[in-house]
# Entry
Amino acid sequence: MTETPEATALIPAPRRIVLDQHRHGRLDEGTRLEAGPGTEGVARWLRATLGAATGFPLPDGGGRPEGGERESRLALSIEEDLPPEGYRVVVDGPAILIQGGSAAGVFWGAQTFRQLLGPDAYRRAPVRPGREWDLAAVTIEDSPRFRWRGLMLDVSRHFMPKDGVLRYLDLMAAHKLNVLHFHLTDDQGWRVEIKRFPKLTETGSWRARTKFGHGDSPLWEEKPHGGFYTQDDIREIVAYAAERHITVVPEIDVPGHSQAAISAYPELGNTDVIDTTSLSVWDSWGISENVLAPTDNTLRFYEGVFEELLELFPADTAEFSEFVHVGGDECLKDQWRQSPTAQARIEELGLADEDELQSWFIGHFDKWLSARGRRLIGWDEILEGGLADGAAVSSWRGYRGGIAAARAGHDVVMCPEQQVYLDYRQHGGPDEPVPIAYVRTLEDVYRFEPVPPELTADEARHVLGTQANVWTEVMEDSGRVDYQTFPRLAAFAEVAWGSLPAPAERDFADFERRMTAHYRRLDALGVGYRPPTGPLPWQRRPGVLGRPIEGAPPNK
Ligand code: ACM
# Structure
């Protein structure tokens, strides 16, 4: 038994835990894995994961155990007394029970069980053959606060190859996060194969060079950057996520953040304002003024894109799989103001201005998706000019959009930039690599409250949950993504899952204590997190310009 038993260092902390250090359970060569009805997928995951880490075969435990009562046994079952994603883990003598209100609940219980086993359970091969896997006897009962516990990954600004995405799904699962918001398109790259429009990836998925550092940096990386997921890659990612009870919500960003698409198909842009044939995939950062033209051709084109997308991201029984994210953020209107075509459309539709034109554009896809049994979700700009029933909002410009949306009866995912943009720097020191925006420490994220106090209980019911957003302009590789994302994602996971008190009353010291055990888990997983003492030499980026903002973030 270790000095600090893993059971007292769980992240996220469970609702209820009863520990008996005088009794034990164990996993050994003979442990049988008994999968009750509906838990076969979790058994497969456990056998693959813990089997690799321990070297134990975990044979099927169906039927009578040959070793009788003393034989160790890991039994999975779905129990109706538990909430859908809730679970119970009981370690007591030779029997270990992992029970859930659904297969998802059993899976989250299995994640907790893995934490109980210690950091070596996160490795892919045994490092101490012959060791005993002893556990203190424990009963844990747990269930999540929020249904939407998300991570947004921007794979457009810097492409993350498929293996990296699968790895992030594993990291999300280890933190009981269940929605991957997959930001697949932007000005700097189109990342999903669309068969009827091959140039989206032939032309749109790469750029000849990349700005190194933030927009004002004079540095360039003078080599092509790019990549995309084939349709089978996407199917694999979606299926891999589903095995981990994670839903992937794809984002195709319209009508702004679309320069990569316009560079592939110049007719999508405002051809009466600029020569769109001269555009290439953007190689710097910021907000491009090259936005989609509000024409029938553009609408038909994107209907074609979404038709293929709906097949790749089926709305099956998984929670939230009906959602399709259409972006809608930061659409500059200068070209629409200058475009006779856009102005004629405003006139024809009887709209007041360009903001209403954007609202019409988003509204079109809202109806189009609804007619196909889907739900639209977009960044909070989509509220401007009115939003159809059923559409949901990702509240990123502070809480305000989320508050307005919830009051208007729309579902909301809270992801205010001032709180949970993980590209923002996590320390004010000079060694912080490519520092962006405000300082958001581990403690700041731990004290993030997704439900603003302004909402009544009824309005707060529209808060589906929360997500942390990882924008990758200054994250050129997975090491940089790890550094920005961890350890803060562990604090975020506790906020999204746990039943924490009000921010000021949260016991950050206890969280830090538990993090000492969690860092060992992240080490075993090979996560390049930011150490509490600051960046390691190879995590620094001396001389690479960021864009820090001094002072505390505005409270909005
Ligand atoms: C965003 O950060 N533009 C959603």
